[in-house]
């Protein structure tokens, strides 16, 4: 007997009353029981009192359980799983500070992270600085805040800009950044990648002296060598020695020099449209404040019944956390609270990928040269060249690497174009 579909308005009311908490999805009349219904979850077979020995038709009604608030798939807890795993593993962040001695780099780092990383530092006299060369000094500290652990590495560059001849000061910094990329590339290409340690430099704070009217030649040369390898954040040191008008003029000249020499410093990402207005306003203030004019202090003073970090002068007290006195709080917000992960993402997706593409290209070219040399040695005087499948694969990989490099170049040009557009809007 063929199956007949019963319209919803003809379904028996008695069955609806028996199915409290369920929804009828199908009603069929057949001469045989429906075996598929017995194998389905959240379904029930409701049959009227029928004699199995007779040939009377079976009425099969498929009923599906109504889903309540407790019945859900569960993937909404993925962010919580990622959060628990990330907190358990901890976070890494490497910060490089570059600038000549006496600009308050150590004081700023201690003020940012509320620690003392330079207890036993020796201050060199003038005679020792004559032939002083740039060196690398790395310090690591473990910080925990509300159960979140951060492994902070500070890479200092003592001796930068202190010698009479500073034309090679950039070499040590550039070599160190490349070495960390190379070490990460080696670890990533190895067999055991479970305990990889990320020592790549995620951000470089470049300190500009307040007495300079713009970027000096040593500053420009250093940034040209580093801006494609690391996120550069320009900082005007000891801003309390400048008036508000002088700070504004110096910031404008620094931005003009960066644009003129095509130096790409760290670009703030655009806010998503779904962000709240408070976050958008904070993002606009951070973008407008760059380069940051900061004042740092290790001394805690009492002002108006509250304790603040500041500097005591005969004419008053400079509060480093007062936005009218310094951009210190904006720099701390950007570096730690809002853009630390973005600095790491840009390091991974742009700077490291560029380095990785160059390494793969060099390895492929070296392999091609070695293979061509072996072919020439084996062929002798035979001028016929045979291209194998391996050679074709290597050529395809080289072409893919070139496309990746072109894409990176286009991305950098777009970022630069968007930055120019943003600056023009601000000028208007």
TrEMBL record:
Residues 89-362 form the Septin-type G domain. Keywords: Coiled coil, GTP-binding, Nucleotide-binding. Residues 33-52 have a biased composition (Basic and acidic residues). Residues 394-421 form a coiled coil. InterPro entries: G_SEPTIN_dom, P-loop_NTPase, Septin. It comes from the Eukaryota. Residues 33-55 are annotated as: Disordered. Pfam families: Septin. Belongs to the TRAFAC class TrmE-Era-EngA-EngB-Septin-like GTPase superfamily. Septin GTPase family. This is Septin. It comes from Chilo suppressalis. The lineage of its organism: Eukaryota, Metazoa, Ecdysozoa, Arthropoda, Hexapoda.
């Amino acid at each position: 007997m063929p199956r007949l579909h019963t319209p919803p308005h003809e379904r028996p009311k008695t069955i609806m009353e028996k199915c409290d908490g369920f929804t009828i999805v199908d009603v069929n009349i057949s001469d045989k029981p429906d075996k598929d219904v017995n194998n389905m979850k959240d379904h029930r077979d409701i049959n009227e009192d029928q004699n199995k020995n007779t040939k009377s038709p079976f009425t099969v009604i498929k009923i599906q359980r109504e889903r309540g608030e407790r019945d859900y798939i569960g993937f909404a807890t993925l962010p919580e799983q990622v959060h628990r795993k990330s907190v358990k593993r901890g976070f890494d962040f490497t910060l490089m500070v570059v600038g000549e001695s006496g600009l308050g780099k150590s004081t700023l780092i201690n003020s940012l992270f509320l620690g003392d990383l330079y207890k036993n530092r020796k201050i060199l006299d003038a005679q020792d600085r004559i032939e002083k060369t740039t060196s690398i000094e790395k310090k690591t500290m473990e910080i925990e805040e509300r159960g979140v652990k951060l492994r902070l590495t500070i890479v200092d560059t003592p001796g930068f800009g202190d010698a009479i001849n500073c034309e090679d000061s950039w070499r040590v910094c550039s070599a160190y950044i490349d070495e960390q990329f190379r070490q990460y590339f080696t670890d990533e290409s190895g067999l055991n990648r479970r305990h990889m340690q990320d020592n790549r430099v995620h951000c470089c704070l470049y300190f500009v002296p307040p007495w300079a009217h713009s970027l000096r030649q040593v500053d420009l040369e250093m940034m040209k060598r580093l801006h494609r390898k690391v996120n550069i954040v320009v900082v005007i040191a000891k801003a309390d020695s400048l008036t508000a008008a002088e700070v504004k003029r110096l910031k404008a000249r620094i931005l003009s020099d960066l644009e003129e020499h095509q130096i790409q410093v760290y670009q703030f990402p655009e806010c998503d449209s779904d962000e709240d207005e408070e976050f958008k306003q904070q993002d606009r203030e951070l973008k407008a404040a760059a380069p940051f004019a900061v004042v740092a202090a290790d001394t805690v003073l009492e002002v108006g019944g509250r304790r603040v970090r500041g500097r005591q002068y005969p004419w008053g007290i400079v509060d480093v956390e007062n936005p009218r006195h310094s951009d210190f709080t904006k720099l701390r917000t950007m570096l730690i609270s809002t853009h630390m992960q973005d600095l790491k993402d840009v390091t991974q997706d742009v700077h490291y990928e560029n380095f990785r593409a160059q390494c793969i290209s060099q390895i492929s070219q070296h392999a091609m040269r070695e293979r061509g040399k072996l072919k020439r040695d084996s062929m002798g005087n035979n001028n016929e060249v045979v291209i194998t499948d391996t050679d074709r694969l290597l050529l395809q990989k080289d072409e893919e690497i070139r496309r990746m490099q072109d894409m990176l170049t286009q991305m950098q040009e777009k970022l630069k174009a968007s930055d120019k557009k943003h600056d023009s809007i601000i000028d208007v």
